[in-house]
Amino acid sequence: MRKKPVIVVTTVAIGAAIVAWVGVLLAAGEPLVVPRTDPRRYVLVAPWPEPQPDTSSPNWKYLSDDVGMLIRRDERLGLRARLYVLVDGAWSSVAPDDVSDLAGTIPAK
């Protein structure tokens, strides 16, 4: 007999949370899918220039004209690769391998 009120209260609370979340999303000043009208708004700018890969290395492999991969051997982890994309004439890595790649963004001693 006690389970029914608990189920009703839980259902009402979850429903209210969903309605509130939808209200927050719709009340925001922008639509849910934002068109790219201002490119400066969506560009992440690193505080330092990203090192460019050596594309003349035998470890560099072109996957297409604007996508490449640099393969290296790590002492601890074995064979590793990093994917690069050519953006505005400069190569940018797609994702960091590990925390050591984020050394400039994570405050450390």
Q: What characteristics describe this protein?
A:
109 residues; elongated
Write structural notes for this entry.
A hairpin with a 3-residue loop joins β2 (67-74) and β3 (78-87). The protein starts with a helix and ends in a 16-residue tail after the last strand. 1% of the residues are buried. With 109 residues, it is α+β, with helices and mostly antiparallel strands. It has a four-stranded antiparallel beta sheet with strand order 1-2-3-4, with no helix packed on it. It has one domain (3-102). The chain is built from one helix and four strands; from the N terminus they run αββββ. The protein is elongated and about 70 Å long. The chain has one helix spanning 3-27, and strands at 60-64, 67-74, 78-87, 90-93.
Low-confidence stretches: none
- Envelope shape: elongated
* Helix/strand order, N-terminal first: HEEEE
Which class do the helix and strand fractions yield? alpha+beta
Q: What is the oligomer described by this structure?
A: single chain
Strand content: 15-25%
Whole-number count of domains: 1
Number of helices: 1
Helix content, binned percent: 10-25%
Any idea what the radius of gyration is?
A: 24 Å
Largest sheet: 4 strands, antiparallel
Number of strands: 4
N→C terminal distance: 59 Å
Question: What is the strand arrangement across the widest sheet?
Answer: 1-2-3-4
**Mean pLDDT over the full residue set:** 75
